[in-house]
Amino acid sequence: MTSPAEPSAPADLPAGHGEQVPGVPLADAGAAPATSAARIAALAVAADDGARRFLCALLEADPRIQVAGAVDGAAAALDFLLRRRADVALMDLPGADGFDATRRIMENAPLPIVVCTAAGAADYAVFRSLEAGAVACVEKPAGAGSPAAAHLLQTLRLMSEVKVVRRRSRPPAAARPAGGPAAPGMVGIGASTGGPPVLQAILAGLPQDFPMPVLVVQHIARGFLAGMAEWLRQTSGLRVHVAAHGMLPQPGHVYLAPDDFHMGVGGRGQIVLSKDDADGGLRPSVAFLFRSLAQACGPAAIGVLLTGMGRDGAAELKLMKDRGAVTIAQDGETSVVHGMPGAAIALGGAGYVLPAERIAGTLVALAGAHSRSARS
Q: Which residues have C-beta within 8 Å of that of residue 24, sequence separation ≥ 6?
């Protein structure tokens, strides 16, 4: 089993041919932005001319952002990035086109990519883009000045500071062979920005009859959950559900908190959904899930806090640890944003501090220990 790591201080955020859009200058590859070196150079990528113009107008409305260029697809985006500079890309491409563009960019000219799409159109391909290296997905606003537009611009500004690495093509992860008999206990996982690909990698690394249920709170824009569930279903060996009130969680099954509902565990081990007030502005919140696991499962629970902004779940991971649960926080090196896990580490709430690629193996070992303990 992996040995517990010493908690460390939370890490701070790390410091083609484009088409000319009327009224929007293209950034020169070597030049500073027109008004201030602090302005973020953003590349807009959309297949439709009207969509590109809309994205450019949205970006230019923010004085902290300048449009570096606007292109219509994967080939043009890659050509642009090989010739010119951009700090971040905002991508609105349908279906497999978005995945293909993300894959090609991250393999050849990596930069932070934010995917935007109408909430009702969020599907499997959106989450394949995250798997390929996109750092966030957001709802495409219907118009400027809306809350969705403000959220998109805030996300773009934050993600422009994220350090990304070149990706290499890899085959889909194969499901692991079946494990041992079921054991009591549950795994709770909380994640926010950068979470979906880490979550997918963890689930793909678990055996098909992993001996614990896995409950997940992933902060994600409303309307994206069904697409994420389908993506996780197809890329892991586990059965993935959007949770419903009263469900009895089963080993080897994954339960996602639905839009706008807190998810927790009741006294009989059943899933409880709640419309209680937002916790720290969030519903669902990781805090709600972890508190309920601490109370209902105590030392039979495992808590995992992944990449994300803010502090959601940090104090509650410490509560789980105090109640005897095993607790894991993702390390700073592999986190897109180390806010949530970093806060938990600083509070002393993480029994293990692990890179993303070691979390699944640790869960398998821990679940095996639970199983052996239950049989003895």
A: 56, 60, 67, 70
Q: Is 241 tagged catalytic?
A: no
Element of type H or E holding 62:
none
Please report the domains of the chain, with CATH numbers, ordered by start residue. 40-159 (3.40.50.2300), 186-375 (3.40.50.180)
Q: Bigger pLDDT: 29 or 159?
A: 159
Catalytically annotated residue among 129, 312, 338, 371: 312
| 301 touches 186 (CB < 8 A) | yes
Please list, residue by residue across 85-106, b when 16 or more beta carbons sit within 10 angstroms of its beta carbon and e when fewer do. bbbbbbbbbeeebbbbbbbbbb
* H-helix or E-strand spanning residue 66: strand 65-71
* Rounded Cα distance, 218 and 301, in Å: 18
* C-alpha gyration radius of the chain: 21
pTM: 0.77
Q: Which of 62, 87, 92, 192 is catalytic?
A: 192
Check if 312 is active-site: yes
